[in-house]
Structure formats: C-alpha cells, structure tokens
C-alpha cells in the first residue's frame, strides 16, 4: 500500500526529574535525601513531538547534541515511555541503539553471539544457522574464542553490529552506530543497512554525519530543544541545518 504509516508519533513529551546538586557517591546522595536537602527540577527533553514514518522509507532525525534524538528513538523502540502522547508502530523492530548492551565481557565472542542473539529474540537454531555469516561479517574469525573484555572497542562494535543485524526487521532503528569501527567497516555497515532497506525495511536513522544522513535518508525530522523545528526533504533540510550550524 502506498504511504502506509508504520510509525505514528503523536504529541510526545517526556519529562526527566533532574537533581539540582551533584553528589560524589550514592552514600552522600542517600544522606542528603534522608535530610530532604535535594531539590529536583523538571526537564522536558521532548515537547509535543508529532510525525509519521511511512512503510519502506528511511527517515533521519537531526539536531544538535541534547536536542532529543536518542530519547525519541528509545521511545519508538519501547525502551522509554513518554510522559504524554503516544507512539504506534507495526511490525518487528530491531533497535541498534546501544550496541552490545547485553554482552557479558567475561564470555568469549562466540558465547556472546548466542547470549546477545537470544536477548535480541533470535532462536538458537536461527543463530546456529547464521553463525558463520556473523563471524564473516565481523571479520573476527581468529578471535571467536577470546573473551570480549580483551577486544578493542572497534572489534566489540563489529561483533555487536553483526549480531544485531542478522534478521530482516520491519523497522530498523539506527542511533549513531555507523560511527563505530574503521572506514572500511562503516561502509560495510552502510551497505548492510541499504540491503535491509531494499528488502523493504523502514529505517529510522540518527547520525551527526550529514553525508551519511543524505546518503541514506529521504526525509528528515529536525529537532531543536526537544521540539520539531521542521520536517521535510533530506537534501533541503540537511543543507539548511549545516548552514545554521
Ligand atoms: N535518563 C535521562 N535522565 C535525565 N536526562 C536525560 C535522560 N536521557 C536524556 N536526558 C536529557 O535529555 C536531553 C536529550 O537527550 P538525547 O540523548 O535524546 O539527545 P540527542 O539529541 O540524542 O543528543 P546527542 O546528539 O548528544 O546524542 C539531554 O539534555 C539529556 O541530558
């Protein structure tokens, strides 16, 4: 169906309570809390954000640091609940948000493929079937029996990306993960995302790399201080955004 809405974000706002003081540790925080000496301030990270994502499109979220992009993606992924408003999604979502969040550093790369893959919802059979593909994509053939605590951050990210992207989700959420790894690996990641796109996935993409945003996205939602600044064509808004920076 043409222009089928697959993600509908309606009047989303989210409030965080920020402590007005900083504490050196939990003990100090606890004492001050018991003494009722802590005051809290409301901070609205997103205010009244609405937009729609159409099936098969790649939509980019842009905005300066702290404008609310990651928070918006986490709400769409279901990791956070909005204080007000609603998000409706249809289909399977693969969130590439905090890569390797479920990894156990004492386990080997191979053990982590099965641990993390299971956490991401893949069955053991599916993981066994795709194991070689994961190893090949991450280019870590010689390191699969090494505990991941000995991995460099690039090696770690390569493995985490390879595991997280073996499926074909309906909605792929990509938050800054293309900045991981070296240039060669970034290109491989971009190609894999493009393949998912060709296979019909709808993609929500956050990056500070405007070239990547232009390459992958057709439409943009530009956030400013947690509000929608504008929504429109990727080339046009990327140009305007870069000129405003
Ligand atoms: N769990 C939280 N508790 C308190 N404040 C938070 C929390 N998560 C995010 N924030 C605040 O919400 C605002 C938006 O953060 P967010 O990470 O969504 O921004 P962003 O646009 O993704 O930034 P960046 O480009 O730096 O990744 C920031 O001011 C951040 O400090």
Automatic annotation (TrEMBL):
Q: Which GO terms describe its molecular function?
A: ABC-type transporter activity; ATP binding; ATP hydrolysis activity
Claim: Nucleotide-binding is one of the keywords in the record: yes
Keyword list (alphabetical) reads: ATP-binding, Nucleotide-binding, Transport
**Which Pfam families does the UniProt record give?**
ABC_tran
GO CC, alphabetical: membrane
- Annotated ABC transporter domain ranges read 29-244
- Identify the Gene3D superfamilies for this entry: P-loop containing nucleotide triphosphate hydrolases
The record ties this protein, via CDD domains, to: ABC_KpsT_Wzt
To which protein family does this belong? Belongs to the ABC transporter superfamily.
Q: What is this protein called?
A: ABC transporter ATP-binding protein
UniProt organism field: Coprococcus comes
The opening ranks of the lineage are:
Bacteria, Bacillati, Bacillota, Clostridia, Lachnospirales
């Amino acid at each position: 169906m043409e222009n089928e809405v697959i993600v509908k974000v309606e009047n989303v706002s989210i409030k965080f309570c920020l402590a007005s003081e900083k504490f050196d540790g939990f003990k100090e925080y606890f004492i001050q809390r018991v003494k009722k000496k802590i005051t809290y301030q409301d901070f609205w990270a997103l205010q009244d954000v609405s937009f729609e994502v159409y099936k098969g499109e790649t939509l980019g979220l842009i905005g300066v640091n702290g404008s609310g992009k990651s928070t918006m993606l986490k709400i769409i992924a279901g990791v956070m609940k909005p204080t007000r408003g609603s998000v409706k999604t249809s289909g399977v979502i693969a969130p590439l948000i905090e890569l390797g969040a479920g990894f156990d550093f004492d386990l080997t790369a191979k053990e982590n493929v099965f641990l993390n893959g299971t956490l991401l919802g893949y069955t053991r059979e599916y993981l066994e079937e795709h194991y070689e593909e994961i190893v090949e994509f991450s280019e870590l053939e010689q390191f699969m029996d090494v505990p991941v605590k000995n991995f460099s951050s690039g090696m770690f990210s390569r493995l985490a990306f390879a595991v997280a992207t073996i499926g074909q989700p309906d909605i792929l959420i990509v938050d800054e993960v293309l900045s991981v790894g070296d240039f060669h690996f970034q290109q491989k990641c971009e190609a894999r995302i493009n393949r998912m796109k060709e296979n019909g996935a709808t993609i929500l993409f956050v990056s500070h790399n405007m070239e990547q945003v232009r390459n992958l996205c057709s439409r943009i939602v530009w956030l400013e201080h947690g509000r929608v600044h504008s929504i429109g064509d990727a080339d046009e808004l990327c140009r305007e955004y870069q000129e405003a920076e």
